[in-house]
Every structure is written in C-alpha cells, then in structure tokens.
Amino acid sequence: MTGKTLSRLNFIDVARSYAIVLALFSHAMIAFGGFTALGDDALKIKLFTRTATPLFVFMFGMMLELVYARKARENGLPSVVRRLVLRSAQCYLGYQLTVIAGVIGGHTTLSQATHAMFFMDSAVFGNILRLYSVAMLLAIPIIWIRCRTGPLSLVMMLFTIWLGDTILDQYSGVSLGRLDALAGILLGTGSTLDGPSVWHGMTFVFAGMLVAASLHNWKQAGLKQFNYTLLAMAAVCMAIVAWLAADVSLSGVIRRFANYQYRSHNHIGYYAVGLIACAATLFVLSRIIPLHSKMPGWTRVPLSFSRSSLLSYSLGNIILSLLPASMASQNVSGAIFASLLFLAVLLLLVSSRQLEAGYRWASLVRFEPGAGRILLRMPGGG
User: Fold this and answer.
1) Which has the closest alpha carbon to 125: 266, 326, 321, 329?
2) What's the pLDDT score for residue 293?
3) How confident is the model at residue 382 (pLDDT cuts 50, 70, 90)?
4) Which residues contact residue 210 at a Cβ distance below 8 angstroms, ignoring those fewer than 6 apart?
5) Prediction pTM value
6) Mean predicted confidence (pLDDT) in 290-307
7) Which residues make beta-bridge pairs with 190?
8) What SS3 state is found at 223?
9) Number of Cα atoms under 13 Å in the Cβ half of residue 230
C-alpha cells in the first residue's frame, strides 16, 4: 500500500462516471425519441435516470468538501476563490454553448436562447451547468462559513433551505412579471416551473458536503463514520417519504419522482428520494470498489467521464443539441441502440489521451503563492 494508492477514493470516481452516464443516456433517449416511443413504460427507465441529477450535484458537494474546503482550511479562503470563479465561468460557457447548439439543431428559437442565456428561460439540455455556474460562486461564502463553524453549519444550511421553502411556497403559481422565469430558476417559485432551482438544488450540495466530511480520516479509520452518515441521511429521507406516502401511497411518491412532477415543482419528495438514491449508490459502490488499491488498467476508459466531468457533460449535451429534432425515432430498440452508441463514441472521444491531456492541463490551478506552490487538479476533473 503506497501513499499514492491511498490518495483518492476510487468509488467516488466511479459514482461520478455513473451519474454522467445516467444523465447523458437520459438526454440521448429524449433526443432520439426513446422515451416518447416507450410511452408509460418509460417511467421504468426514468426511475433510474431521474437519480442522475441528484447524484451529479451531490458529488459536486462532496468535491467542495474534499478539495476546496480542505484547501481553504490549509491555505486560507483566497487560495480557492480564483479557482471557483474560473470553474463558474467554465460551467457558464458550457451552458452557453449548449444553448447555441440548441438553436443550430432547431430545438429552440433565437428568442428563447437569448432569454436562456440570462436565466430567463431553459435550455433543452445542460440546465445543470446553469445551476453549477451559480453554485460555484455561492460556494465561496459557504466554504468560509464551513471552515469557521464546522460540519454542523451544513446541517443548519439544509434546515434553512426548507424553512425558506415555506416562505417561497406562498408565491408558487403567482406571476412575478418579467422576473417570473428568473425567480423559478433561482428560487423555484412564481408561475414558471423549473427544477431543481438553485435554492432547492443546494440541498444536494450541502448533503454531499456533510457526507464528505465523514471521509476526512478514512485512511486511518476506514468508512465506518461514512456509513453511519449515509445511514442517518437515508433515515431522515425515508421518514419524509413515509410521510408523503401516507397521503399518496409509496407507488405514488415513486411515480411523481420518476415523471418529473416532483422535480418541476421543487417538491421535497424529489430531494428525499434523490438523496436515498445517492446514499444507496455510494454505499454499494464503497463496498464493491477497491478502497486501498489501484483500479485495474481497463477502467481508464470507463472512468474518463469522471476525470473530465465538465468536458464530458458539456460536450455530450452540445452534440445532442446539434442533432436535428427530425432524428427522433419512434422505434424503441433503435432509440436505445442510438443512445448507447452515442455514449460509447463520446466515451472513446473523451478518453483519447490528447484530449484528456489538454483538459487536464486546463484544469490545473495554483492554490498556493510563492516558490512552494502546488498544482492540484480536482479529483475527477471537476
């Protein structure tokens, strides 16, 4: 066992790649008409693909804790501010290019695209990049608070989101005029439904940071505290699901999670079920993925999505947005085959050593000033 072997948690990289695969497969199925062709049977697949966004954003929260909060504690907050601002700009650029690609592909009008650029409308794909671009900036004061008050502050921030939801809910369905779309995207309120909003989506970020906080001593203590934290999070969310199921039944909760109803309304059920899925996914992966040894060489290609997550997600959505709407098939098997082929081609493209080396160079950041500067890349490429 070497220090290098122990320097990263393999199951986190696998979880990141898995989340991106789910998200892009879902988008590909939309682009190729797979979900439309499946009709009501699409919910069986969407029950799994709907967990992509919660897991993707949750892993972002874990990265904030494991990389940025740690660096801020060691070197001060200024050591990470520049990087967070840069990543915010990169996420916004990826979002902009996806919007432009949607115009070229005929999925959105020029007017809609212009509004989408300023968060006054939604893109066909890539809206999570919009959330990321704002969340990266919000991370600066969040990390400042986290470093000064400890993990308990994350629990308080989670509580604040849903306490604030009781206030925001009073304006749900109420037109806010020109600010309606912006309010929906940022706060999840008004008459324009769009989820997850930035406000509510921070639920996954804070939960991810809280779980990641239990991993700081994993090299010496193992994953015992991590498992307890996952269990506690899942237990709270299961209690929420049980409360909701008492009104609409468990199958009703699951259906509303899968069919976009909970997500579009920023309903607490979306976040509860999503966090249960995150806990289950991470627990299973942490049990089956080697903890103290390197991943086999053949995993380099499958894990390229994790190493270059921003590139993978942005490029995948741009390609899908460029495809003309007429390519959508009414044939289920054809749409599924096209979606899987798209993922395979994208994986090979992103895993090319030339593109990967360029992306890795672009992802380097100087955290510490002076002669002792350290070049540190975010785990998984951020």
Assistant:
1) 321
2) 78
3) very low
4) 61, 65, 151, 154, 155, 158, 229, 233
5) 0.90
6) 83
7) 172
8) coil
9) 20
